[in-house]
């Protein structure tokens, strides 16, 4: 298998869809259903890229991002995939931002460009 993508989203339909999409395109995946679990998953799995929902129970995406971005040597690209359109919740250093529903082809192209 190739590079690993961590999917952070509380919606099982989205995580299942993204897992299938990424696996079909040759990527490994791991999933976290909220920001709290995502931090532990990130440290255990060391993914090459993260897709991040903003609105989740327990801990929101921006808070999780602030925590991991403080880790020494953190430079993992983050793609925000969210139903929130408001920029006030966005991740300033995000490699890309996709609104739900997203264009699958554009997402895979972006992932492929970031991981090549």
Question: In terms of topology, how is this protein built?
Answer:
Blueprint: E1 4-8, H1 12-24, E2 28-32, H2 35-45, E3 49-52, H3 61-69, E4 78-82, E5 96-99, H4 104-115
Parallel strand pairs: 1-2, 1-3, 3-4, 4-5
Number of domains: 1
Bulk shape: globular
Look at the helices and sheets and give the structural class.
alpha/beta
CATH classification, class level: Alpha Beta
Distance between the termini: 14 Å
Spell out the CATH superfamily: Response regulator
Count every helix, treating DSSP H or I runs of 4 or more residues as helices: 4
Instruction: Give the neighbour order of strands across the main sheet.
Output: 2-1-3-4-5
Largest sheet: 5 strands, parallel
Q: What is the CATH architecture annotation?
A: 3-Layer(aba) Sandwich
Strand content is 15-25%
Total DSSP E strands: 5
Q: Helices and strands, in N-to-C order?
A: EHEHEHEEH
Low-confidence runs (pLDDT<50, min 5 residues)? none
Offer a quick outline of the entry.
This protein has 116 residues and is an alpha/beta fold. The chain has four helices and five strands, in the order E-H-E-H-E-H-E-E-H. It has a single domain, classed as Response regulator (Rossmann fold), CATH 3.40.50.2300.
Notes on the structure:
With 116 residues, the protein is α/β, with parallel strands linked by helices. The protein has a single domain, classed as Rossmann fold. 39% of the residues lie in helices and 20% in strands. It has helices at 12-24, 35-45, 61-69, 104-115; strands spanning 4-8, 28-32, 49-52, 78-82, 96-99. The protein has a 5-stranded parallel sheet, sandwiched between helices. α2 runs parallel beside α3. It is globular, with a radius of gyration of 13 Å. The model has no long low-confidence stretch (mean pLDDT 91).
């Amino acid at each position: 298998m190739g590079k690993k993508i961590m999917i952070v989203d509380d919606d099982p339909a989205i995580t299942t869809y993204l897992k299938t999409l990424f696996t079909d395109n040759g990527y490994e995946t791991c999933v976290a259903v909220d920001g709290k679990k995502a931090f532990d998953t990130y440290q255990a799995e060391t993914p090459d890229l993260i897709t991040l929902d903003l609105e989740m129970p327990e801990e929101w995406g921006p808070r999780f991002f602030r925590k991991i971005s403080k880790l020494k040597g953190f430079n993992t690209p983050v793609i925000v995939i969210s139903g929130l359109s408001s920029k006030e919740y966005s991740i300033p250093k995000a490699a890309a931002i996709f609104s739900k529903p997203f264009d699958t082809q554009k997402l895979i192209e972006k992932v492929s460009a970031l991981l090549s």
